[in-house]
Specification:
Blueprint: E1 2-5, E2 14-23, H1 29-38, E3 41-49, E4 53-62, H2 72-94
Antiparallel strand pairs: 1-2, 2-4, 3-4
Helix pairs in contact: 1-2
């Protein structure tokens, strides 16, 4: 993930280029977009591929002109946690106890 400054007349806007690559399985897009929304980030542009693996590249910026505590590390951690929660939830839903 790379941090970039966006101009467009708003010098204090922070923008990020977010790249995610993980094994195919489940719908990882929705949990990632939910995290962006919770963090007050707006997706300006995104490309997603789900052929052989899940891949996403997105440019996101903060809704607020200044948002303290918003940095690459926080966004990266939130995205990873969202994917892990989603995968763990999907794993639990697949396991069905068999009663003999």
């Amino acid at each position: 993930m790379k941090e970039k400054r966006k101009g467009e007349g708003r010098e204090n806007w922070k923008g990020f280029l977010v790249k995610v690559i993980c094994q195919k399985g489940g719908d990882n897009l929705v949990p990632i977009l939910e995290v962006f929304e919770e963090m007050g980030l707006v997706v300006l542009h995104a490309k997603v591929s789900c052929n052989f693996y899940f891949g996403m590249e997105a440019i996101v910026v903060s809704e607020e002109e200044e948002q303290d505590g918003l940095d690459v590390k926080n966004v990266s951690q939130a995205v990873v946690e969202a994917i892990v929660r989603h995968v763990e939830g999907a794993d639990r839903s697949i396991k069905v106890p068999v009663v003999n």
